[in-house]
Amino acid sequence: MRSRKVQFLVISFLVMWSFITYYILLRNSNANDMTMQQQQQVKRLLPEALREDTKSLKLTRTLVEFLKFKYAGDQDQQTTTTPKISIVAAEISNELPEQALDKVMPATLKTTPAQIPNKTYLANGEPVIPILVFACNRVSVEKCLDNLVEYRPSIEQFPIIVSQDCGDERTKQVIQSFGSQVTLIEQPDLTDIFVLPKEKKFKGYYKIARHYGWALNTTFQIGFDFVVIVEDDLNVAPDFFEYFLGTHKLLKQDSSLWCVSAWNDNGKANVVDTSTPELLYRTDFFPGLGWMLTKELWAELSIKWPKSFWDDWIRHPEQRKDRVCIRPEISRTRTFGKIGVSNGLFFDKYLKHIKLSEDFVQFSKINTSYLLKENYDKTFLKQIYVLPLVTFEELRRNLIAIEGPVRIQYNTRDQYKRITRMLGLMDDFKSGVPRTAYHGIVSFYYNKRRVHLAPSANWKGYDLSWS
What we know:
There is one protein chain. By secondary structure, the chain is α/β, with parallel strands linked by helices. The chain is built from 14 helices and 15 strands. Helix 1 runs antiparallel to helix 2 (36-71). The relative contact order is 0.08. Initiates complex N-linked carbohydrate formation. Essential for the conversion of high-mannose to hybrid and complex N-glycans. Its cofactor is Mn(2+).
């Protein structure tokens, strides 16, 4: 009964509104009071008014269907199970089962809900670690996915979830061409983002932050303990998956660790030791570019996730809280994405020269306990400050008589930047932290020897003003 009353009221209102509109148009179209030009204008307006009237009727039918379902009781429903809801339609249809969507939602707005694999642990007790690939409008994501699929040891343990923003159809088709090898989820909020005029050029970073927040929420809500994040412009090394298999336990064992990254910011071929592909470090600098985090960390970060520049935000002391990441001597990722929101920043000078490891290291069979804070600090830090102290000129001109690792000391920001520029290392700071640094120490390989660019032994911590 209530349904019929609502239907009658809506239709009555529409009929009355249409009649009044039509009457006003006729009244204003009196030929006696009009010029020929005005009459022609009215003739053009009348069809438009009728088309709008037709649209209103269609809208009313849709509204009536919704109200009929909402108030008709249980006449058409024999079950009370929770319906599956399309992500795109969720905001306006969270009370409707799929059969009602067929009546209410236009076909162009309906999507099939993405079926993210929901197994979180294997039968042998090992965790399922999804690879979450962020994509937008680059069809070159195919190179990234080809690489991941090629080296993936187990589709069951490493499901590849591609999260696409932007709604670019060509990119979507490329992703879908991988069939059951990957799972595609689509960021539903494609609305524009308001930014101040002076920040208009940074709008892309706002959209990226929004995408990251949605995709990580969507993935972690399945129940995974770990997620590995990969951007659509990355290639990975043959042992990329093995790298995370051998290091994921460290994140649970050591509360001072908050990520494992496959990237070395100073990983250019001429400053890494290619004979030690198994070598890993602790670093205070958040590297990104292929990194793993835990559900506990995401629970902490998600409630305050920023609107833009998420990577710089995550490096701030308020987020980092003196926690560190694991990074490799030789990168397990390499970017081929020169074009993007950063407009090729650092690409030609640094990124395209990063060495991608070609070896396969069985990290899952290596004892990585040396990376735990209590072990690492006792050995690494102690060893650094007993090394011979040399100058950059002595290093550059190969005037050091002794064999083995050495130390170069820096005391000021300008001194650090001058030395790193001459060495071809990245010279910038984020929240006062140099790239790859641990306790201010940046380690690299030069003229066939290990070199540690370090502050004085009485170092007091990072200075935010150095950024």
